[in-house]
Amino acid sequence: MTGVELDGATRHRADAAGGTAGHARIAAHRGYEIGARMAEHLARRDPRPVSQGEVVPSARRPFDNFPSFIARAEGAYLWDVDGNQYVDFLLGYGPVILGHNHPEVQSAARRGLDEGVCQAPFWSPTQVQLVERLATVVPGADMSFILRTGSDATSCAVRIARIATGHNTVVRAGYNGWHDWCNPFEAGIPEAVREHTIVIDVNDVAALERAVASVGDDLAAIVTMPYEHEIPDRVYLGRVADLASASGALFVLDEVRSGFRVALGGAQELLGIRADLVCLSKAMANGYSISAVTGRADLLSLLKETKVSSTFFANRAEQAAALATIAILDDTRPFDRIAALGSRLMEGLNSVLSAASVPAELIGHPSSPYLQVGDEAEPHFAIRLAERCALHGVVIHPAHQWFISAAHTEADIDRLLEAVSTSVRERTR
Q1: What is the pLDDT of residues 85-105, one digit of tens each?
Q2: Which of 33, 60, 350, 367 has the greatest number of CB atoms lying within 10 Å of its CB?
Q3: Rounded to an integer, what distance in angstroms lies between the CA atom of residue 222 and that of residue 174?
């Protein structure tokens, strides 16, 4: 099977699917024949299928119970290589805040590409415009340092904190990236690196206080997401700020997931909090790979004492996409509508699960709800639910937040509720 043959099959099936992104009606599922063959082909050359499996964790082999390869995306919809259409509630793990293939964002990115790719070590006017824009919408963003990924941003912030304080230890909460200082897995990471990080749960004030006390005078930063699966807690975040200040450490707010999703100014605006440094990515550019560390000028200026650099940090297409995304979010302010759709989903789905006596519920912020499954639930309930929903034209994740975009409609929410209701009934047959 060659790449050319795969591409031809992809086009044939995706074109045969028909329909448009605006149609809520989704045709009968066609199966995963082409996707399964692609996955087997990929597994011989790429470690992802072996190391990470598919979206559904159990689907390492056979690759025939969940979509693996996407042919195209538009608005709130995806089409896989077998021609199946889905309402997308994964949204690339959250970045696609405006909907896939947004015309204004795409046009801005294309203009950036037309102006040239990879012009390092030089900068562009687009970069000036972007950092100026961030200063107007992100609370406390006196300066901004542009990078590529969320892990880049959080690791950069930790480097700044260690320079600013002269200390080494970091207390962290939530998922903060894959780099050595914060990787949730131990393999391949020296103990000497891990011993300088203490991990706690978001919103656990008691654990936070114990961790800070255990560090003594070596605390460089407290790095936390404003929320993960749970509802944001102002008491917890206020305690983070107080303890960091009292310890001479920095409060680093990891808004990679929440930034430009819960409000234009992120969780800082939504909750009325202020961090020393803020890490942004994901929804900042509607899916384009870009991130930023923002904060006080005296802190960002410390980057002159270290080396945080990449050939690709200054690429202007991604910066142009970010500028366009932020402008659209500023003009349209879709955050309340997104939250309202999420609330509709949470209330409806929790009613469906309760009526079926399923010990599970959607929790968290409405723009990114999380399916919490009780210990007494049937084995692999969330995985089986995701598999069944995919067969009914909806993609959700069994072990991660779901996401709502400005492109979703009430009809899309109702389709997910219908898919869950049908799937719950099917599990008893």
Answers
A1: 999 999 999 999 999 999 999
A2: 367
A3: 11
Show the tokens assigned to 299: 């802190």
Residue 192 host element (H or E): helix 191-194
Q: At what angle do helices 410-426 and 381-391 cross, to 10 degrees?
A: 120
Please name the residues in contact with 252: beta carbons below 8 A apart, sequence gap of 6 or more.
154, 157, 158, 161, 221, 222, 223, 224, 275, 276, 277, 278, 279
Which pLDDT band holds residue 15 (cuts at 50, 70, 90)?
very low
Among 38-52, 286-300, 333-347, 368-382, name the one with the lowest average pLDDT.
Answer: 38-52
The alpha carbon torsion through 234, 202, 396, 90 (nearest 10 deg) reads: 80
Is residue 360 within 8 A of residue 374, CB to CB? The reply is: yes
| 142 vs 292: CA distance, rounded Å | 13
Answer yes or no: are the C-beta atoms of 369 and 413 closer than 8 Å.
no
Query: For residue 394, what are the β-bridge partners?
Result: 87
Q: What is the pLDDT of residues 155-186, one digit of tens each?
A: 999 999 999 999 999 999 999 999 999 999 99
Q: Distances from the Cα of 86 to the Cαs of 4, 282, 355, in angstroms?
A: 25, 22, 26
The one-letter amino acid code at 255 reads E
Q: Which residues of 34-54 are buried (b: 16+ CB within 10 A; e: fewer)?
A: bbbbbbebbeeeeeebeeebb
